[in-house]
Amino acid sequence: MVLKLCTRSKGKQRPVAKAWENTDQMNHKIKFLPHNKEITVPDGEILIRTAMEAGVHVNASCGGEGLCGKCRVIIEKGTVNGGISELLDGEEVQKGYRLACRSEVKSDLVVRIPVESDIDERELNRRHSPTRRARVREIKLEELKSKGLFIAPVEKRYLELPQPSPEDNVADTRRIINFLKMYYNEHRLVFRLAVLRKLPDILRMSNFKVTITLARPVFEHRKSEIINIEPGNTTLRNFAIAVDIGTTTVYGQLLNINTGDVLAEFGDYNAQIGYGEDIISRIVAAEKPGGLEKLNHALLQTINKVIQKIVKKSRVERNEISTITLAGNTTLTQILVRTNPKYIRHSPYVPVSTLYPRIRAIDLDLDLAPHTTALLYPNVSSFVGGDIVAGVMGSGIYLSEQISLFIDIGTNAEIVIGNKDWLACAACSAGPAFEGGGIQFGMRASAGAIEDFSIDPRTFEPMNLTVGNVRPKGICGSGLINIVANLFEAGVIDNQGKFDRDLKSPRIRERDGTYEYVLAWKGETQINRDIVLTEIDIENLVRTKGAIYSGCQTLLDGIGLSINHLDRIILAGGFGSHVDIEKAMTIGLLPEIDPEKVTYIGNGSLLGAKLCCLTNTIRRDVVEVLGKMTNFELSETHSYMDHYVAALFLPHTDLNLFPKVKNRMELRAANNGKQKSPITEAV
User: Fold this and answer.
1) Nearest 5°: CA angle at 474, between 461 and 462?
2) What is the reported pLDDT for 274?
3) Contact 580, 130 (CB under 8 A)
4) How far apart are CA 325 and CA 391, in angstroms?
5) Which residues is 85 bridged to in the sheet?
6) How many CB atoms lie within 10 A of CB 604?
7) Torsion angles phi and psi, residue 387, rounded to 5
8) Are the C-beta atoms of 244 and 603 separated by less than 8 Å?
9) Is the pLDDT score of 489 beyond 90?
10) Which of 81, 230, 495, 534 has its CA 20 to 30 A from that of 666?
11) What residues pair up with 513 in beta bridges, in sequence order?
C-alpha cells in the first residue's frame, strides 16, 4: 500500500509529504475511533504522528515531549511499545490508556480518542455572544461605503468590443486596451500570460462580448493587471476570501466584492497544533529535516479545508473568486510561503521579509483558480505580524485621536498603543495557558469546558457552568480566569496563588506535594476523574497574565506614558470575546480602568483581512501605518523583566495600580472581622 499526502496545485496532485512505500519493513493498519479513520504505517511509528497523518487530532500541548499528559488514548486492540507514564495512574493503565506521543506501533491497532484528548471544530463555528462586561464595536460597512472608502482591489469590467475587420485589424490586446481607455478611462494596463493564452479563443467564442478582471495596484501610478477573461457579462459574480491564520485556529469568510456581504464563514483548528501549541515550538519543528514541508502541508491542509467549506456553503464557483487576503503572524506567514523561520527566534530576530508581493494563489498551493490573486498582510517584525497589522486596520485606532491600548490575547499576545499620529507595538510570549496548555485539566473552549465559576465564601463549594451546559471535562481559558479571580477574592488563595492551608474543606487538599482545589468530583465529570485546579496551574496562569501586563507597562514606559493616559482598551481575538473584564482586572491581566472603556472587536485579524479584500484604501493605509509603528523587542528591553517580576502576583506587587481590587479585599476582610486582608505584602 502507498499513502501519499497531497494538495491541489495547478490541476495536479503534488506530494508534499514523504510517501510510505511498500518495503521489506512490516506495516500495520491503525483504526481511530470514534472517527472511523484508518491508515497504514510502518512498524515502530510513533502513534501521535500516525494520528496526525490520518487527520485525527490528539491534544498535545507540549509538542509531543511527554510532559503535558494530554495526548491520552485508549488502546482497544493491539500492542504498542511504551506509552506508560507517571502522568497515568494504575487504573488508567489497566483500562488501556497510553500517551500517544510515547507509544510505538507494534501491531494492527484499534485506538479510541477519549473526549478529553479530542477537539470539536463545531464549537468554533457556533455564534457566541461576547462577554456582557465589554462593549462591542461594530464595523458599519454601509457607512464606509457612503464615504467612498470602498475602492475594490479587484474589479470586473464588461466589454462589448468592435469585431476585427480588414480596416480594423489591431491586436486583440490593443483592442481591449483602447476600449478600456475610451469607456472606463483605464490607463497603464498589463496582461498576465495565462490571459494571453486563452484570449483569442474566448473573444471569438463569445462574439467579442467578454468580462475582464483587473487587479488594482496599491499605488495609482503603477499598472493594473488583467488577470482573467470570461465570456459574457459576469460582473455581478465577483468574490473574495478573507483568512485569519492563527496559531490555534484558522478562520475564513467568503465575501461579495460588489456589496461587501459575507456569504459564508468557517473556522477550524490549525493542523500544526500537533507540532506544538506555541510559535517557538513550530519554529523548532520547522528546523528539523523535512519539518518546514510538514508544517507547510499541515497549514495548507487547514486553509484549503476552510476554503472548501465556505465555497460549498456560499454556492460560489472557485473560478468566480478573484482574490484572497491572508493575515497571520510572521512565523506562520513564512511557513505559508515556505521560507525558513529559523532566524526569527535568534537574536537579532530577523524575518525574511516584512512586505510580500502579489502572488498567484495556486503558487502557494491554495485550492483556488489559476487567476486568483493572493495578498499577504505585511509584518512589522519577527513577533509582530500581519495579523496584528490587520487588527490595527480593522479596529481603526490608526484613525483615532484617542490613545488606545490594543491587545490580541492568545498564545502569543501582541500589544499596540497609539493613535492617528503614532503607534508603538510589542509582542510577548504569553504561553498556551488560555488554550489549555500547562494546565492539568486545561482545554479549549468546547462542550464540557468550565467557562464560569463562583464559590460559596462560607462552605467553599463551587458552582460550575460549562460550555453547552453538560458535565465538565476540563477548564477553558475564560473559566481559568474566573476561577482564580473568585478563589482570590474569597480568600481561598493569596496573592502568590497559594491555597490557605488552614481552610477546612474537602475540596482543598494536598496531592503529590501540591495543593489543589477540586472543582468537580470524579462521578460528576465526563472523564471519570476529579477535575482540579492546582497551585502549579495557578502559577502558570500568573506567568501568562504577568507577561501580558508587563508588556503593556513596558510599552507605556517606553513612550513616556502611564495607564492613566489610556482612553480605551480594545480586545481582539476569539478568546478576548469571552473574557470577564472585571475578573481579568482582578487577577492583573488587564490594567484597571473603567470597564465601559473596554471595547471588543472580535477577530481583528479577520476583520482587517476582510477590509483589505474590499477596498484599496485600506491597502494604501497599511503602508502608511507600517511607517508609524515603532517596534519594541521586549527581550532586549531591560525594564521588561523588572515589570514582569512585579506582575507575578495577584494582581500585582503595587496594589495602588489596582485600587478597586484593594478596596474590595479590605472591605471583605473587615466584614469577616479579620485584622488583615488576604492580600499579603509581596516581597
Assistant:
1) 10
2) 79
3) no
4) 14
5) none
6) 31
7) -65, -35
8) yes
9) yes
10) 534
11) none
Contact of 151 with 620, CB cutoff 8 Å: no
**Stretch among 198-202, 461-465, 626-630, 671-675 having the lowest mean pLDDT:** 671-675
| CA 552 to each of CA 170, 300, 515, 581, 671: distance values in angstroms, whole numbers, following the listed order | 63, 34, 31, 16, 34
Phi and psi of 580, rounded to 5°? -75, 110
H/E stretch holding 61 reads none
DSSP letter assigned to residue 493: B
Query: What is the per-residue pLDDT across 200-237, written as a single tens digit (0 to 9) for each?
Result: 999 999 999 999 999 988 877 789 999 999 999 999 99
Q: Does 8 score more than 60 pLDDT?
A: no
C-alpha cell at 375: 495578498
DSSP 8-state secondary structure symbol assigned to residue 302: H
Read off φ and ψ for residue 260, nearest 5 degrees.
Answer: 85, 0
Q: Which of 568, 577, 570 is nearest to 602 (CA)?
A: 577
Q: Is 63 left (phi over 0), alpha (psi -120 to 50) or beta?
A: left
pLDDT bracket for residue 143 (50, 70, 90): low
Q: pLDDT tens digits, residue range 260-294?
A: 899 999 999 899 987 887 888 899 999 999 999 99
d(CA 214, CA 394): 25
Q: CB–CB of 322/372 below 8 Å? A: yes
Could you give the CA distance from residue 550 to residue 174 in angstroms, rounded to a whole number?
Answer: 61
DSSP 55: T
What interhelical angle do 638-646 and 535-558 show, nearest 10?
140
pLDDT number for residue 6: 38
pLDDT at 680 exceeding the cut of 50? no
Q: Which of 393, 505, 418 is nearest to 460 (CA)?
A: 505
Q: What is the DSSP-derived secondary structure letter of residue 121?
A: G
The reported pLDDT for the residue numbered 601 is 87
**Residue 443 main-chain phi, psi, to 5 deg:** -160, 170
Q: The C-alpha cell of 400 is what?
A: 483615532
User: What is this structure's pTM?
Assistant: 0.83
Nearest to 569 by CA among 129, 134, 140: 134
Q: What's 521's DSSP letter?
A: -
- List, in order, residues 6 or more apart from 373 with CB less than 8 Å away: 154, 215, 227, 322, 323, 324, 358, 359, 360, 361
Q: What cell numbers appear for 558 in the block? A: 517606553
- Alpha carbons within 13 angstroms on the beta-carbon side of residue 240 total 31
Helix axes 477-489, 535-558, angle to 10 degrees: 100
What phi and psi values does residue 47 have, to the nearest 5 degrees? -65, -35
**Would you state the cell numbers that stand for residue 535, as one nine-digit string?**
497551585
Do residues 241 and 253 touch, judged by C-beta distance below 8 A? yes
